[in-house]
Design goal:
Helix content: 55-70%
Largest sheet: none
Shape: elongated
Structural class: mainly alpha
Oligomer: single chain
Strand content: under 5%
Distance between the termini: 56 Å
Mean pLDDT: 85
Low-confidence stretches: 227-240
Number of helices: 10
Amino acid sequence: MFETFRAELDEHHDRRERVIKASRDITALSKKIIFSLQRVKKLQTLLSPNISNEISTRQGEIAELFTSIVPDLGGINAWRYQRNISGGIQEFMEAISFQQYLETQTLVTFEEAQDKLPLGVELTQEDYIGGLYDLGGELMRFAITGMAIGGEVPRGSGETCATDDRDILNDLRDLRARFEVLDTERSGLRVEKKMDVLKTCVEKVEGAVYGMTVRGRERPTGWTPGLGEEGGGPDAVESY
């Protein structure tokens, strides 16, 4: 009898380790996708061939990793190991939502996000929303970098879809407002820390816009946000 228990425990630990390793690898590949997307210069533009190829390759590797653990997530195990795969799924949600935003200036829907996962890998509402919360940090970095390079708040170029003259700050504020009215206590979502980070991201972009439009009038010609300020420069952008 005890040998049976030992075998079951060994199988459980092996399965759990496979899921954890896959989650870590998925997280690392998703971060690389995000790093590639941060090289995009404008909203609503087609990705360059180099960036597109990099992303396609890494998405293929992520799909293989998800597929490899589908047998370990069958039946009740989908919930037994949900916490172990959650980090990888949330990072992947952040990556695909960032890509869709850059290309179309829209958010990926829950159904669209689920279609990005292979059959057998369930997308929970918490993982989907967690990825969208984390998206705020990437939008903040993209906005700060865009202002430092181009001297204006990034907005849609209209190349891939019609634009209604929204800029990235308006979108960040809208995202914050919609999450603020979300009833996280009743739904059981544990996102308080993510909400604080999102608010900070919006405030950083607002501060950069303020410095560019109001205080910028006092700056010499050629000045750009993050350059020439106390604590400014390229390192300041990276510090976000």
